[in-house]
Structures are given as structure tokens and as C-alpha cells.
Amino acid sequence: xxRKASVLALGSLLLMAAAxxxxxxxxxxxxxxxxxxxxxxxxxxxSTIPSNPILAGQSAGYIAKQLxxxxxxxxxxPQMIGVVAPLSExxxxxxxxxxxxQPIKPAPGRDEALAKRGERLYRGGNAKTGVSACMSCHGxxxxxxxxxxxxxxxxxxEYTRKQLLTFKSEKRTNDDEVMTRIAFRMSESExxxxxxxxxxxx
Length: 202
Ligand code: HEC
Ligand code: HEC
Description:
The chain is mainly alpha-helical. It has 2 domains: 25-100, Cytochrome c-like domain (Cytochrome Bc1 Complex, Chain D, domain 2, Orthogonal Bundle); 112-200, Cytochrome c-like domain (Cytochrome Bc1 Complex, Chain D, domain 2). It has helices at 2-24, 27-33, 38-41, 60-72, 78-84, 89-100, 112-124, 135-138, 157-168, 178-184, 188-200. It binds heme C (HEC) (2 copies).
């Protein structure tokens, strides 16, 4: 019995190692494939366009998942459809590895008073309306927990605001109902404030 259990455990460890190796991606290969991303996501994934996300320093697994979701239609974005159509799973892993390794040039936090209000929600949630503390999944400094929970620190606040609004209105539903349930309980002014706060996190 014991021996059988340890053989099974070893088997699943090997499977996990294989999945890990597959998920690692090749950053050098990704760099070559990232040329077409520059126009919209900036050099090294540091977008300076407020509505376009910064990809630098984002978790590789999260990036690969989003690319797959754009391709399958689970996440809808007209500007990304043409980009993802020719990408293979390996391309997506390589692009994820490349952008994850790029140093982030964070968007500047702009409005301190607004950010201060966002900080309370980010760190403590809103007990009255049942909004969970963002910190518990995205980390105290917003660096996320790879591969599942994305980095939110230093992100363009306009992009972040749009995501929270699209989760709230269920136009973005590729989150296994985690963010849609949270955003549903958030007011538009909370969304604005927390987006500003996260942009200023380092
Ligand atoms: C024509 C402009 C354009 C090009 C080219 C483009 N993107 Fe995008 N991308 C966007 C926009 C706009 C969004 C934001 C969509 C939204 O608001 O939901 C986005 C979102 C993303 C996201 C989701 C990020 C997040 O934080 O959830 C990833 C990942 C991404 N793009 C990767 C890429 C990669 C990799 C390439 C190159 C192979 C690329 N994009 C090329 C416009 C573009
Ligand atoms: C229980 C865990 C959890 C909590 C709590 C949580 N999130 Fe998330 N969040 C996620 C997951 C998982 C995703 C990625 C969904 C996906 O795969 O597309 C995400 C995605 C996001 C995104 C999209 C990032 C991008 O680059 O597009 C934003 C913005 C975000 N969360 C903000 C928040 C805010 C603000 C709060 C607090 C009010 C919060 N989250 C609380 C789990 C959580």
C-alpha cells in the first residue's frame, strides 16, 4: 500500500515537473516574437498609452493565459484578435517569459488624495458591501502571486479602471467568477480610487 502510494506520488511529481518545464517558455525566442507588440504595448512591454496595459514584469503564466483566452474568445478584445490568431501555445509561453523578465517602468501615480481612499479598500476591503481585500490575492505591494494572480502595481490606472468596470458589467468573464463577483460589489468611485492607488504601488 505504502509503496503504491509513493509510486503514485512520484508519478504526479514527474507530471508536475513536465508541466513546469513546458510552462517555462523561452524568453529569447519570445523577444523575437514580441516585435509586433511594441506599437501598442511599448518598448519592453512598458506601455505609455493609458488604455493599453503594461506587460513588463507581469507573471508569465498570466500573460500566456490571457493570450489563450483572447484566442478562444473567452476574453474579448478587438485589438488583440488579429494578434493572437497565428500564435501557438509555445509562442504564448515564450512571449510570457519575455515580458515577465522585462523591468517595469511604472505608470506614475497622480492623485494622492484619490489614491489614499483606494488604499483603504486595497488593504482592508469593504466589510459593509462585502468587497474582499485586494491585497489577499494581489499581494501587499501588488506584485501578484504567479501564475494565477496578476501583478497590479504600477499599471496604467486607466487600463485598470476599465478592467474593473468590464468585470463589473460582466463584459470580461475569463476569471472563473473571482473578479466579477468582487467588482459587482464595488462602486464606480471605489474603482477609480483603487486603480489610482495600485498605479502608485511599487
Ligand atoms: C493593435 C494594438 C495591440 C497590439 C499590436 C498588441 N496588443 Fe495586446 N492589448 C491591446 C489592448 C488595447 C489591450 C487591452 C484590452 C482590454 O482593455 O481589455 C491588450 C491586452 C493585452 C494583454 C492582457 C494584459 C493584462 O494585463 O491582462 C496581453 C497579455 C497582451 N495584450 C499581449 C500582447 C502581445 C504579447 C502582443 C504581441 C504579440 C500584443 N499584445 C499586441 C492592444 C494590442
Ligand atoms: C480571491 C482572489 C482575488 C481577490 C481578493 C482580488 N482579485 Fe483581482 N484578480 C484575481 C484573479 C484570479 C485575476 C485574474 C483573472 C484572469 O485570469 O483573467 C484577477 C485580476 C484582476 C485585475 C485584472 C488585471 C489585468 O492586468 O487585467 C484587476 C485590475 C484586479 N484583479 C483588481 C483587483 C482589485 C481592485 C481587488 C480588490 C477590490 C481584487 N482584484 C481582489 C483574484 C483576486
